[in-house]
Amino acid sequence: VDAEFTKRFGVEDGDIEKFRAEVKMNMTREAKQAVDNRVKQQVLEALQKANDVPVPQALIQQETDALKRQAAQQFGLGEDFDVSQLPNELFSEQAKSRVQVGLLLAEVIKSNELDATDDEIRARIEELAEQYQEPQQVVEHYMNNEQLKTQVKSAVLEEKAVEKLLAQATVKDVEMSYQQALAAAQQGTQAEEGEEGEAEAEEAKD
């Protein structure tokens, strides 16, 4: 690692120690995010299994349509693409799961009278902005956009609800390396996608 190498990664003055500090900070953030996401996923899975609440079909269809639009965007199909061409069966199980989890979390938030302050919302926005080249611009963009602020507030409330549920659960700490933490989070995501695929296959058989 030399000064020229570090400049290619945004460290303009070529300071190797600064480069190493930034790499360490990024790795720490990624590891924390991976662990937090995996814990959240496990908590929500347990919550859903313990509370198989009925879900209105209208909400499932609404979420299904949202997933279709998201898929169309990811595959670059264009804004004019008619998402009704995509079969509901590809998204219905995931949509139902999301709606169930959303309803359950809303009840946890309501019953525990959870709320997110402006300071907490800004702190989360600043945390998100750290991964961008111009973090202050990102913060200002979020703070001046009510829709984005509402999304961040929802994320903060969701995290508080998960923490509340986690406090009531039996937790076992497992020591992992950086690579193991990322791999565990990735395996959790793949397992979830696999379960959805199996459910869709069963529906196709029926």
Care to describe what's here?
It is a single chain. With 206 residues, the protein is mostly helical. 72% of the residues lie in helices and 0% in strands. It has a domain at 116-167. It contains eight helices and no strands. The chain is globular.
- Helix/strand order, N-terminal first: HHHHHHHH
As a percent range, the share of strand residues is under 5%
From the spread of the alpha carbons, the general shape counts as globular
Strand count: 0
Please give the oligomerization state of what you see: single chain
- Average pLDDT across residues? 81
What is the structural class?
Answer: mainly alpha
Give unreliable regions as ranges: 190-206
Helicity level, as a percent range? over 70%
Number of helix segments?
8
Distance between the amino and carboxyl termini = 58 Å
What is the C-alpha radius of gyration, as a whole number of Å? 20 Å
Q: How does the major sheet shape up?
A: none
List keywords for this structure.
Trigger_fact/SurA_dom_sf, mainly alpha, disordered C terminus, Trigger factor, Trigger_fac_C, about 210 residues, isomerase, single chain
